[in-house]
Amino acid sequence: MKIKVIVHEAEEGGYWAEVPAISGCATEGDTWDELLANLYEAIECFLSIEDL
């Protein structure tokens, strides 16, 4: 499954990202790797709630 993600550089350092297809799904990370891990977790949580 492919999901579009928009990544932004945070003013205070690090990154934040939003998932336009999932209203309210956004996360942040101090590093690129942390951001990706947080994104996978956030998307998984939103999708698992939809399955209920």
List low-pLDDT spans: none
Q: Number of helical segments?
A: 1
Question: Rg from C-alpha positions?
Answer: 11 Å
Q: Report the β-strand fraction as a percent range.
A: 15-25%
State the share of residues found in helices, binned by percent.
25-40%
Structural class from helices and strands? alpha+beta
What can you tell me about this protein's structure?
Strands 1-2-3 form a 3-stranded antiparallel beta sheet, covered by helices on one side. The chain is 37% helix and 23% strand. The two termini are 19 Å apart. It is of the alpha+beta class and 52 residues long. The relative contact order is 0.20. The protein has one helix at 32-50, and strands spanning 6-9, 15-18, 26-29. It has one domain (6-50).
Write the layout of secondary structure elements.
Layout: E1 6-9, E2 15-18, E3 26-29, H1 32-50
Antiparallel strand pairs: 1-2, 2-3
What structural keywords apply?
alpha+beta, 1 helix, globular
Question: Can you give me a brief rundown of this structure?
Answer:
By secondary structure, this protein is α+β, with helices and mostly antiparallel strands. It has one domain (6-50).
